[in-house]
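Service request form, structural biology core

Requester: graduate student, group of Dr. S.
Request type: structure prediction, single chain
Budget code: on file
Notes: please return the result as structure tokens.

Sequence provided:
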Amino acid sequence: MGVILGPLVVGAVHAGSAGLPGVFALLGGVALLGAPAAAVFGEETAGRTPAELSP
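Core staff response, request fulfilled:
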């Protein structure tokens, strides 16, 4: 979903009054939201073989 909506949102932010700084602020905000989510909900894979990771 993000692959589809991402370019549309970035284009809309860039074309709007925010410009290029707004695009960087948007991407930084998304990264700040995604990092804690990955830390909380992500699965630790260190030390595991690919066979253990596959469903």
